[in-house]
Design a protein that fits this description.
globular; about 10% strand; 12 strands; ten-stranded mixed beta sheet; 2 domains; 24 helices
């Protein structure tokens, strides 16, 4: 790579800068989205599901402590391929196990064959532990994980392990650093220190494997009887003849647009798969009922990686190389990942014929690039102040206009009213205390949102009416486009007709048996919390409070976007009540104390003016999906639903914090 000097005018410089910033914005949006999806899945990992993060580490150099000068030019090396496995503990402790598996070999080829062999043994290990779903994450290195040969290997692994449902995910380009990198560094560091101290001599893969098995295996023998098994480390040694490299990249047809693929599912037939532009783990994706973010992440498309025509003819004339069976030769087994065709296949463009040797069209050719919806502002940077990192036209994963997430009912009174008066729809449906006790309480789900697991309710979530969804999606977009609080307040004032069009009431007749109990929240539930409440699961994607409010109002989580918008509008229109020092019957001067817990608090003196400005900023930010909501928003939920809500806060988090958060929330 050479550094080249280029001369030109300022206009040329600015033109090139704008073009490169657009490309950079797409790149950063993709990288951030994939990282958020990975972290969201790891933090709310479903049962019988595992995450495998795999990547090659830099080779270990076999040095001597006392070596001759010429040894510097002829070091032997050992290949390392660390993998990190995350899954639920098989015991009743409800904790997750992090298991490091390091594959090593004297073979220095970091290629797809090495990766396939390591993954095959890992999948066999997980299958023995009762795992049913495996999500494999890696970077997008073409020679190792993301090209036509690795794609074929994925379909072969799916056929070899029919009891496992496999999915493959890729981090954004250049953003693939993960736990596996730290594992590789730890192993090499320990080996280097052992050699430097004179205790060990490591000159081959077998020496490295022996040293690691004797010194780095976890749990240690004296710890296995004490339950210290949530952190494990093991090692595998391979020889070069264990890697099958019969498949050559030049023999297969390239899957066009494969560099833009970040999620794929292999089918049972070798070479056949479905893929989409970005990964997504929304509640509908987990239930295989479409996708809330389909317009952003792209629809599922059929794809195939097949032998080139000249290679097929050689196969038919007696070559030992076998091509994948065609549809005319064998019946394709049902796809274990989807009981229905991919979403885009039924909604827009029919999938390409898998019997053709031509690969399917690129996602970006048939639909607008999901990375940059032009009308969506970024939550991190308001539209009025675009930054080079995130142009105005680039959305972040948190703000998705296409998200079919539910609606936002509310009968917010008009802002001209001198006092807060709930509409008849809300006041007439005020729930009885029994409803708030038998319904999954939002307090536990919200106050322990970091510990809440993924949503998996017993009853399937009902689909939201299209007009209601459309109204609140449009309202959320208008509120997000506001450049100042005055503009935000104007849109909120005009939105009262939409809010009154869709009534809001509390769902009655619910019981805790309808929902899945949240084991983590149950463990965190304090001893002084209300005994009649039952913690239930909601999906922990940054929207846990509006999701909990949606459960109270509708009996399901689908309307969390609606509840988020209603909360923001409520707090904007009736800000004088929420800025009053007497708004809470329990906590004195709650607005000021709440400002201290805000993400916008950086240690400034909290004068009434500063508290008001922080409140305005927080209200504007709270309309964005995934943004943090706190105790003030919980008061807004209680006001919207006209019911008391118990804010339950775990013990051991500090006396002052718990004193501000652990109390009964009344309508304002």
């Amino acid at each position: 790579m050479d550094q080249v000097k280029k001369a030109g005018t300022w206009e040329q410089l600015l033109h090139e800068l704008r073009e490169e910033l657009n490309t950079l914005a797409k790149h950063l949006t993709t990288a951030r989205w994939q990282r958020d999806q990975y972290q969201g899945l790891a933090s709310s990992l479903p049962e019988q599901t595992a995450i495998v993060t795999i990547d090659f580490a830099e080779n270990y150099l076999c040095r001597y402590q006392d070596e001759v000068q010429s040894a510097h030019w002829s070091y032997r090396q050992v290949s390392l391929c660390p993998s990190v496995l995350q899954y639920h503990c098989s015991s009743s402790c409800c904790s997750c196990v992090t298991e490091y598996v390091v594959a090593m070999s004297d073979d220095l080829n970091h290629d797809a064959a090495f990766g396939k062999k390591a993954l095959s043994d890992i999948l066999q290990h997980l299958e023995e532990k009762g795992i049913q779903h495996v999500h494999i994450w890696s970077d997008g290195c073409a020679s190792q994980f993301k090209s036509k040969v690795p794609f074929i290997h994925m379909t072969e692994l799916a056929a070899e392990h029919p009891n496992l449902v496999l999915q493959r995910h890729y981090f954004g380009a250049g953003h693939g650093k993960s736990l596996s990198d730290g594992c590789g560094g730890t192993v090499k560091g320990c080996a280097t220190r052992a050699v430097a101290s004179g205790r060990e001599t490591i000159q081959s893969g077998s020496d490295m494997h022996k040293f690691c098995c004797e010194n780095l295996v976890l749990p240690k023998e004296n710890e296995q009887d004490h339950g210290k098994t949530h952190l494990q480390r093991s090692f595998m040694l391979y020889t070069a003849d264990q890697f099958s490299r019969s498949k050559k990249a030049e023999d297969y047809v390239t899957l066009k647009g494969c560099r833009s693929i970040h999620q794929l599912k292999p089918k049972r037939e070798v070479g056949e798969l479905v893929y989409r532009h970005l990964s997504c783990f929304c509640s509908r994706c987990r239930d295989e009922d479409g996708c809330e973010n389909e317009q952003f992440v792209g629809g599922w498309r059929n794809g195939s990686v097949k032998l080139k025509e000249n290679k097929r003819r050689k196969t038919k004339t007696g070559s030992h190389q076998t091509s994948p069976p065609s549809e005319s030769q064998t019946t394709t087994p049902p796809d274990v990942f989807q009981s229905t065709p991919p979403p885009d296949a039924s909604q827009s463009t029919p999938p390409p014929d898998v019997s053709q040797s031509t690969p399917p069209p690129d996602v970006s050719q048939s639909t607008p690039p999901p990375d940059v919806p032009q009308s969506t502002p970024t939550p991190d940077v308001p539209q009025s102040t675009p930054t080079p990192d995130v142009p105005q036209s680039t959305p972040t994963p948190d703000v998705l206009q296409s998200t079919p997430t539910p609606d936002v009912p509310q009968s917010t009174p008009t802002p001209d009213a001198p006092q807060y008066t709930p509409t008849p729809d809300v006041s007439q449906s005020t729930p009885t205390p029994d409803v708030s006790l038998s319904t999954p309480t939002p307090d536990v789900s919200q106050s322990t949102s970091n510990a809440v697991s993924a949503s998996s309710q017993a009853q399937p979530m009902p689909r939201v009416e299209k007009d209601r969804h459309r109204d609140f999606q449009e309202l959320q977009r208008k509120l997000q486009a506001a450049h100042s609080f005055e503009e935000f307040l104007k849109v909120a004032t005009e939105s009262t007709t939409v809010l009154q069009k869709h009534s809001l009431s509390v769902k009655t007749g619910m019981s805790a048996q309808q929902f899945k109990t949240d084991k983590t929240a149950t463990l965190l539930y304090p001893s002084d919390g209300p005994k009649e409440f039952t913690p239930i699961k909601v999906y922990g994607d940054g929207n846990c409070l509006p999701r909990s409010a949606s459960v109270l109002a509708f009996g399901h989580e689908d309307n969390h976007v609606e509840m988020r918008v209603r909360i923001a509008v409520e707090m904007a229109l009736y800000r004088q009540f929420y800025l009053s020092n007497t708004m809470s019957h329990v906590v004195a001067n709650l607005p000021k104390k709440s400002a201290m817990y805000s993400e916008n608090y950086v240690g400034q003196v909290l004068t009434p003016h500063v508290v008001q400005e922080m409140f305005h900023t927080e209200v504007m930010e709270s309309v964005t999906s995934g943004k943090y909501m706190g105790i003030m928003q919980l008061y807004a939920v209680a006001t919207l639903l006209q019911m008391r809500i118990e804010s339950v806060y775990p013990e051991g988090v500090g006396h002052n914090v718990r004193g501000d958060m652990h109390h009964c929330v009344h309508p304002v």
